[in-house]
Amino acid sequence: MTEGEGVKILLAGSAGFCFGVKRATKMAFQASEDHDRICSLGPIIHSPQVVRRLEEKGVEVIQNVEDIVSGAVVIRSHGVTLCELEAIVEKNLKIVDATCPFVKKAHENAEQLGRQGYSLVIVGEKEHPEVQGIVSYARSAGNVYVVATAEEAEKLALTGKIGLVAQTTQSFDNFSEVVKACLRKGREVRVFNTICDATSVRQNEACEIARQSDLVLVIGGYNSANTARLAKICRAIQPRTHHIETVADLEKSWFDGVSVVGITAGASTPKWIIDEVVEKVKCAGK
Amino acid sequence: MTEGEGVKILLAGSAGFCFGVKRATKMAFQASEDHDRICSLGPIIHSPQVVRRLEEKGVEVIQNVEDIVSGAVVIRSHGVTLCELEAIVEKNLKIVDATCPFVKKAHENAEQLGRQGYSLVIVGEKEHPEVQGIVSYARSAGNVYVVATAEEAEKLALTGKIGLVAQTTQSFDNFSEVVKACLRKGREVRVFNTICDATSVRQNEACEIARQSDLVLVIGGYNSANTARLAKICRAIQPRTHHIETVADLEKSWFDGVSVVGITAGASTPKWIIDEVVEKVKCAGK
Q1: Would the CB atoms of B188 and A190 count as touching at under 8 Å?
Q2: Is A130 a catalytic residue?
Q3: Most buried of A189, B82, B196, B198, CB within 10 angstroms?
Q4: pLDDT tens column, A137-193
Q5: Sheet with A260-265, side-by-side order of all strands
Q6: Which residues of A touch B179 (CB under 8 A)?
């Protein structure tokens, strides 16, 4: 840490909560006031600190619908599968649906493409709960595939009518490469661009900041895929990049000879965690 | 020309008539037998030699529907506009519809996209009769645009639902670049890949041959766009490339020091014209 003189901080305007996460968190805190018995199906967002605060307010994290007995259940911003939703309805639980509206739109598009006879290609991470939700809505589709890359799409035995949607956090270039691969296979390719700009805006701004900094701090849950990706992108530009979860993870030695510190954060990082990091870096630089 | 020793000839298997042109030409010759009074609306294909042979059989070339009085009219492989078709029907003329089935499919796709509320983007050459035909079928579309490149597409004020079709002779890469540009603009992009493989197969083979030849001959009407493009592609690989229309255009000096001659031909070049060139090159090399 540069002692005796201030460090310059470049804080990304896009750091932290995206629209869907902000909305979901607000709904969960509100629901904790409205209901005596309440749980969320899986952690509401990939921020252990926010989840802990909600637990203190009585919002229990439950992994499976079968384990919920009664009360209200918050559906997180990633959404749930159609099977889970049906099980929740079956159990007569009170639903607080905090599914991100952009994810909901992807559900609708997948459902429509399936119903209209398209083979469906979902571009994203197979294991991600958002993708599993989207897959579940396409159950009337003859074939449903999840691919991460164009290379994977090229291997698919696809012909005829091909429909595409993307996990909302996909990169546009990767998505359009998969579209191109499908265009080589099918005579009709129908694409719903379900990508949410927040991700690319945040990534582009992170690159911009990394280019101007001697040290980059990327704040977010260690279980947050979008934070990890953000750190990877920054590290490719500025090797002195650290993924931290809270202010407690900062290490003094990182700041040796540093005059400009770039700071950004993933979509599920709350403002108060960012603020704490900024304050600590500010003080440390004096 | 290498005197005293034979030149090696590499003749492209894909040289000459494509499926649609072969079909149209056959239909025109057949129709010339079946009808006393017959014309074609515009030259049936871009080969002055074929058009002359048809004229000798009584198939007159007429540019405008208004100028046709009676008898049968051959619609060429490029197709016609919906207005022209309606005028022909109105006049009670006998129709010999030699529109390429691949072009007809593009008409149907443009009509469907227009009817279903898509803004339509047609990728191709604005002035080409095939493209003008496709445009005419999209008359129920709110907006119809013809673009040649992705740069042109980027300038369009497009949003919402975007439909795309291609002129059948488009290159796949150019088409998919335009698709990508549209994906940045519209939330839904529906693409009918109306490209006919014959063009890319012919172009790829021409490249292959040009790489192995000291001299390349590309045969086809000087008014044939696809022949001119083929010659351009070959010239980029082998500068000693000549676009010729018939055997009469060959020049002795081209063959100085040449041992391998590559030969290909556009989609509207008849077999007999190719054969004549091959024979002449063979003899000349002895």
Answers
A1: yes
A2: yes
A3: A189
A4: 998 888 999 999 999 999 999 989 999 999 998 889 999 999 999 999 999 999 999
A5: A8-11, A260-265, A215-219, A241-244
A6: 176, 179-180, 183
pTM of the predicted model as reported, rounded to 2 decimal places = 0.85
Instruction: Say what the ipTM of the complex is.
Output: 0.82
Q: How big is chain A by its Cα radius of gyration, in Å?
A: 21
Active site residue: A84, A111, A130, A205, which one? A130
Confidence of residue B184 (pLDDT cuts 50, 70, 90): very high
pLDDT one-digit tens code per residue, A191-239: 999 999 898 899 999 999 999 999 999 999 998 888 998 999 999 999 9
Nearest residue, CB atoms, A188 vs list B176, B179, B192: B192
Task: Indicate yes or no: CB of B172 within 8 angstroms of CB of A186.
Answer: no
